[in-house]
Amino acid sequence: MKTMQANVVTPDGSVFEGQVEMVTVKTTEGSLGIMANHLPLVAPLTVSAVRLKMDSKIQLVAVSGGFIEVRPDEVSVLAESAELPSDIDIARARAAKERAERRLERAKQENLDFKRAEMALKRAINRLEVAGG
Prior knowledge:
2 helices; 48% strand; eight-stranded mixed β-sheet; alpha+beta; 133 residues; single chain; elongated
């Protein structure tokens, strides 16, 4: 199967670089699968897992928003933050999820910043799902 270069980059640097067969992401408009020679496009990403398929293996990367830029021979994910499963501290992610759930409940009751609390919970859940925790 034909491959293409894939890069996942954050403001702190590169998280993944390599040749892949397919990249699957969740955009604000829905899921998108990209293979070599895809038409160029740019799309905003949601908090989700980026799936990078290489040699019938899937590498997951937890991203918390950003953009995907597609060219026929290269896909770049420009993420606000991104983590490989091996870099995720599961205990810390669970603690963040619990804090976010409490904050979300408090936001509902006290008319606080509900959207911010909701996004914190989505990021924590995404990290746990990618890490297998």
